[in-house]
Specification:
single chain; mainly alpha
Length: 71
């Protein structure tokens, strides 16, 4: 499966990028920026899932599934 890659020029604060690269142990600026974008997108998914709290009910087909869900 091919990925669509878009070349983009952006201005990023040097200190912020260097800190992100050090904390994330990234070797390239591209790796750091892509990780940040993925994290941002993932956080929205987590918020969407959290919004479903209390609206979804798990129904086990048998007791083993219920026990496994409790672990």
């Amino acid at each position: 499966i091919g990925m669509l890659v878009m070349r983009t020029n952006i201005d990023i604060e040097d200190t912020l990028l260097q800190r992100a690269m050090a904390v994330g142990h990234f070797k390239t600026k591209k790796q750091a920026v892509e990780a940040a974008l993925k994290l941002l997108a993932r956080q929205q998914v987590y918020r969407d899932i959290a919004a479903l709290r209390g609206q979804v009910e798990f129904v086990a087909e048998d007791e083993r599934e219920l026990d496994a869900a409790r672990c």
